[in-house]
Amino acid sequence: MGAMDLVKNHYIKEILARGVREDGRGMFDFRNMKIVPGVIDHAEGSAQVDLGNTRVLAGVKMQVDEPMPDTPNQGNQIMSAELLPLAHAEYETGPPSPEAIELARVVDRGIRAANCIDLEGLFLEEGKVWSVFADIYVLNYDGNLFDASTLAVMAALMNARVPDYKDGKADYTNKATPLKINSVVASTTFCKLDRSLLLDPDMHEEGAADCRITITTDGEGVRAMQKGMSGSLSTSEIEKLVDLSFDKYREVKKKLEESSRRRD
């Protein structure tokens, strides 16, 4: 970490101790959130999400595949993430980085645990099911990729249309049936900096943070939780953040539903 980074981190923590964030937000406010569904014509579903200056694109593709041996009557859900070099100076081309793998796993875990995709409805015939591929592309990084990516994938799934299936083949020229979604999830990522807790950290706040926690809920219960960095959270702090995640879920779900209606 360079000298300028240390100065920036000290400044961030100093103003947070006074209850002030650099961009003027409240401690538990999201940055401006923009969801644009249907941005990739050749995908079965897609969405671009801007969370402040963080920009993520998600695309959904479907193909006829074999089921997993342990779930012969269910379709498959596959998630991947790519941190594009244009998004940040530290991102490079090549095999998926540990950060990209973690991002895909955190998003996948929340959506899978909440049974968002009706996997049983993706069964076609013996030995054939739909595989749903959700790909995350980070176009610009300015903090909090977890929430932006979960939001983008969820919006892309809600936007997805299933190709017709005839005579053992997919007809990609006819995609009229919406992908069945059982539930909607949203994640909320919080950071702790010294004694300050805050939602939706930007890049500088993430850089100064002692620890990070991402809580994914479907409004009924916590479906996934991921902690990062070496700092710790008390039991009372975790309980507070879980309660806040349910409050913020309603806000995010409303945004998702509004964007879905505009597309339809």
Ordered list of secondary-structure elements with their pairings:
Layout: H1 3-17, E1 33-37, E2 45-51, E3 54-65, E4 76-83, H2 98-113, E5 123-125, E6 128-140, H3 145-159, E7 161-162, E8 164-166, E9 169-171, E10 177-178, E11 186-193, E12 196-199, H4 203-208, E13 211-217, E14 222-228, H5 235-263
Parallel strand pairs: 4-6
Antiparallel strand pairs: 1-2, 2-3, 3-6, 5-6, 7-10, 8-9, 11-12, 11-13, 13-14
Plain-language structure description:
The protein is α+β, with helices and mostly antiparallel strands and 264 residues long. It has one domain: GHMP Kinase, N-terminal domain (Ribosomal Protein S5, domain 2), CATH 3.30.230.70. Helices cover 31% and strands 32% of the residues. It has 5 helices and 14 strands. Strands 1, 2, 3, 4, 5 and 6 form a 6-stranded mixed beta sheet that branches. The protein has a 4-stranded antiparallel beta sheet with strand order 12-11-13-14. The longest helix has 29 residues, at 235-263. The chain starts with a helix and ends with a helix.
